[in-house]
TrEMBL record:
Annotated family: In the C-terminal section; belongs to the flavoprotein pyridine nucleotide cytochrome reductase family.
Cofactor note: Binds 1 heme b (iron(II)-protoporphyrin IX) group per subunit.
Swiss-Prot/TrEMBL site (Involved in heme-bound ligand stabilization and O-O bond activation) positions: Y31
Binding site for heme b: H87
SUPFAM superfamilies, sorted: Ferredoxin reductase-like, C-terminal NADP-linked domain (SSF52343), Globin-like (SSF46458), Riboflavin synthase domain-like (SSF63380)
Taxonomic lineage of the native organism: Bacteria, Pseudomonadati, Pseudomonadota, Betaproteobacteria, Burkholderiales
Any one GO biological process: cellular response to nitrosative stress
Site (Influences the redox potential of the prosthetic heme and FAD groups): K86, E392
Binding site for NADP(+): G272, V273, G274, I275, T276, P277
Region feature (Reductase): 148-400
Name this protein carries in UniProt: Flavohemoprotein
Domain Globin residue range list: 3-140
Record domain FAD-binding FR-type: where: 149-259
């Protein structure tokens, strides 16, 4: 990989404010242009994020961050790790990068016009080559360590409703091969053909059980309405996939993972379907007979959408080192305080500080973005070191 010259670095860094202003227009143009020239790549990209604008906006933020930190790429290490895992889960390969680069550079030129001169465009070509090299290397390392390459057919062993919204699917390789190990918190991509838009679509789902050598389990929230891209896959799984069905699954990936080597306390904080990695982590700790203090803190709207309620209660009853706190935003008449839930209202960690502010604890937070932001801010305000707070972001993000 050829290092950028001082002039190239200066030119890329100088364009950061322009990208901040026009980045969304550039990236929207980029996706439209790339899909027009390479429609086969629609199979790799979540079309729901395309329609909502989420993916173009995420790419715009990432390109800006790269430009602004072109002289100090070390600060982007976490973002590179995040996106490399996402890409490896989607089976994005080195041969895709020249296509992306060609269309991104053309889009910068076509949107900005005379505002970008040839020398600056050449600097961006060099910068893109540098970034592509970093990501290709990181992704190759993940592929080298993956349980299998690309997508593999799995058969659905069984299907279980966990709540009114969430259904679990138990999966095993259709060829009768071994079920792989993984680290609690990791996810897989599931690929399904969507007739309504005429392309395969991948969606990433956290593995919601401990590694056990018998199955991989995903627990899928039904997205509504069903006739928009955001609901195509989840509704297709809920309504069209039964025991015996075959689904295409990628190898486990993801960096939001439980550090199993530690002996210090663990605090698992989730909102809604963000409970899935926490269940995997708790199941792993319980299955290993860990004596680590564990605080399981969850928030959801009410009992009908409270997944894994009985299972968590059984773990808490059996293991004195595990505590449970559940917030219901609006408890229903059938919801039992002290049994199904503990507190009414949105999650407020200050109300359970004695349970969650544990010495040297690691905090794992998963749920909607605003939920995670609020819990992270609350923890930091309570004196928790930000380095001990780990969050999982669903959907587009990082350098995508």
């Amino acid at each position: 990989m050829t290092a950028l010259t001082a002039d190239q670095i200066a030119r890329v860094k100088a364009t950061a404010p322009v990208l901040a202003e026009h980045g969304a227009n550039i990236t929207k143009h980029f996706y439209k242009r790339m899909f027009a020239h390479h429609p086969e790549l629609k199979n790799l990209f979540n079309q729901a994020h395309q329609q909502s604008g989420g993916q173009p906006e995420a790419l715009a933020r990432a390109v800006y961050a790269y430009a602004a930190n072109i002289d100090n790429l070390g600060v982007l290490g976490g973002a590179v790790t995040h996106i490399a895992n996402k890409h490896a889960s989607l089976n994005i390969r080195a041969e895709h990068y020249p296509i992306v680069g060609e269309n991104l550079l053309a889009s910068i030129s076509e949107v900005l016009g005379d505002a970008v001169d040839p020398a600056t465009l050449d600097a961006w070509a060099a910068a893109y080559g540098q970034l592509a090299g970093i990501l290709i290397g990181a992704e190759q390392n993940l592929y080298d360590g993956a349980a299998w390459s690309g997508f593999r057919p799995f058969v659905v062993m069984r299907k279980e409703m966990e709540s009114d919204e969430i259904t679990s699917f138990y999966l095993k390789p259709s060829d009768g091969g071994k079920v792989c190990d993984f680290t609690p918190g990791q996810y897989v991509s599931v690929k399904r053909f969507v007739k309504a838009i005429g392309v395969d679509q991948p969606r990433q789902y956290t593995l919601s059980d401990a590694p056990n050598g018998q199955w991989l389990r995903i627990s899928v929230k039904r997205e509504r309405p069903a006739n928009v891209p955001a609901g195509h896959i989840s509704n297709g799984l809920h309504d069209g996939v039964e025991a015996g069905s075959i689904v295409e699954v990628s190898a486990p990936m993801g960096e939001f993972t439980l550090d199993r080597a530690k002996t210090t306390p663990v605090v698992l904080i989730s909102g809604g379907v963000g409970i899935t990695p926490m269940v995997s982590m708790l199941a792993s700790l319980a299955g290993e007979g860990s004596a680590r203090p564990v605080a399981f803190v969850h928030a959801c709207r009410h009992g009908r959408v409270h997944a894994f309620r009985q299972w968590v209660n059984e773990i808490v009853a059996a293991r004195p080192n595990v505590s449970r706190t559940v917030f219901y935003e609006a408890a229903g008449g059938e919801d039992r305080q002290g049994v199904d839930f503990d507190l009414v209202g949105r999650m407020d960690l200050s109300k359970v500080a004695g349970k969650v502010l544990l010495p040297d604890a690691d905090y794992y937070v998963c749920g909607p973005v605003e939920f995670m932001r609020a819990q992270q801010q609350a923890l930091i305000a309570s004196g928790v070191d930000a380095a001990r707070i780990h969050t999982e972001v669903f959907g587009s993000g990082g350098l995508e």
